[in-house]
Amino acid sequence: MNQLLEDKVVLVNGGSQGVGAGIVRVALREGATVAFTGRRTELGEKFAAETGATFVRADLTDPAQARGSVEQVVAAHGRIDCLVNAAGLTSRGTLLDTTPELFDAHVAINLRAPFFAMQAAVQHLVDRGAPGTVVNIITSSAHGGQSFLAPYVAAKSGLMGLTRNAAHAHRWDRVRINGLNIGWTDTEGEEEIQRAFHGAGDDWREKAAKTQPMGKLGQVDEIADFVVFLLSDRSGVVTGSVIDWDQIVFGGLD
């Protein structure tokens, strides 16, 4: 069987760690030429040296750099075929204690950054007259979420709507745009959040796993496999889908 992304050029925004880094690894495994962005130069360069992917330093909260991430990949490789928006901010805030600065920070990375990266990528594909794919990493919390995730939910719910809107707008351009509402996932970022905001100890993963139906948190490699499938031609005509990748059954009640 051919590799899923053979001869494709893929950009993973937010690809230096966590889910994004997992997607970089699987996209490389499946034959793609891969670039990824991150804000931390040392971390990005180390991951690039380890994997062979290309590191593009970018602060995606700046719309010019979000668009520029795509432009740099096109300049380096002649084209871009697939975009993944995996960068995200999950710092806590409720409706009552969220400051304007925190709200703006969430909108900047969780909504505005993918908007302008998609703008550049889709414009490039339209100009080329070529098909392409986009996958946005969203969150199952976009359905409502916890009380302490108010600005996060607001921004990610916007990304869920944007995913469907853009997919509809560009379906005749053969640009497929889908989203993945991932649930509680075992990442480096989640480790930091659990310790900073929830007083978690070294055994937080084991405790968390016991609260989940499948006995574990979401795993990065499993999510990455699914994302790469959505990027690939093997996912067929699917576009405008926002898939709940979680072990919570939304709408189900005991």
UniProtKB/TrEMBL annotation:
**Sorted alphabetically, which InterPro entries does this protein's record hold?**
NAD(P)-bd_dom_sf, SDR_fam
**Does the UniProt entry include the keyword Oxidoreductase?**
yes
Is Oxidoreductase among the key words of this record? yes
Keywords, comma-separated and alphabetical: Oxidoreductase
What Pfam families does the annotation carry?
adh_short_C2
CDD domains this protein is in? SDR_c (cd05233)
Record-stated family: Belongs to the short-chain dehydrogenases/reductases (SDR) family.
This protein is called SDR family oxidoreductase
